[in-house]
Amino acid sequence: xxxxxxxxxxxxxxxxxxxxxxxxxxxxxxxxxxxxxxxxxxxxxxxxxxxxxxxxxxxxxxxxxxxxxxxxxxxxxxxxxxxxxxxxxxxxxxxxxxxxxxxxxxxxxxxxxxxxxxxxxxxxxxxxxxxxxxxxxxxxxxxxxxxxxxxxxxxxxxxxxxxxxxxxxxxxxxxxxxxxxxxxxxxxxxxxxxxxxxxxxxxxxxxxxxxxxxxxxxxxxxxxxxxxxxxxxxxxxxxxxxxxxxxxxxxxxxxxxxxxxxxxxxxxxxxxxxxxxxxxxxxxxxxxxxxxxxxxxxxxxxxxxxxxxxxxxxxxxxxxxxxxxxxxxxxxxxxxxxxxxxxxxxxxxxxxxxxxxxxxxxxxxxxxxxxxxxxxxxxxxxxxxxxxxxxxxxxxxx
Length: 398
Description:
disordered C terminus; 2 strands
């Protein structure tokens, strides 16, 4: 929106969206200072935005409705099987699934492309500040970035999107700032000890260089080598990382490991899905009910450790069911198809897909709030590109 003088004018939901993007990277900081609540600031802000934009969201245009319907169909189906098969554990993931919905819907409060980009800038600033604050103020040295980095895969995944934001040519950022932020991210990504973060970084650069075949193929080969070697020598690499870089587990979570590597855990989860005919077992139910039947990893207090599948594709098939898997796959396919004819924003959406699809091999996206935030951002980029096309049609037909 513009006022009479031609200056950009923003709605209340724009300012709220910027606040949400600032706070989406800092919930762990609150926990570190003793504040642990389900009502985290970014969730509260997202809920307020949803209250404003829900009528608009219900009447959304067909260009975005095609994504929303598939996402909501997958979640609705997953909710049904969770109620049917989840038992007393069915409420464990309600806050998480609720976050998925409100973070996605909240992006519809953005009124312009410029506002959307300002929110991305806010996310970059908050991630860098939060990451270094957690590293310098709370890290205990002998552990692999405890505290803020207690989930290093999540930090690495978030860092991939920050990198994607700063290297995407659609955003007006001085090259010096791009370089400074990218260099500043390197120690964070490396110190997480997350191989997914390294593969995701390769995916970022691949998505922005696909117009250069030689560079793209070189990065593709590099990413495949990292992923292949990492998976093949998983136990050896984990042991080296634990002893030579940082202990992978925090002092509150020292475990007598039982060899539950990613491939083994994903295979076990897939077996559970097969035994249930891939109808679905409900959100988070593999972790709650089945993991300890396959793996006996005990914490120092004697309790058994529970893990998710660490593979988003397996999680969708096993917990959301084959129907939920198909809905989600079709949504991502349509997201890629919708970028045809777009400008540099297409690179951003393709970057989101590349990073997400690569990380999904070793991460469960359900718990990655950055995934759902960026999914909404990509949908809004497609929405604004479609609105520009509609606005240009009268001039083309004249």
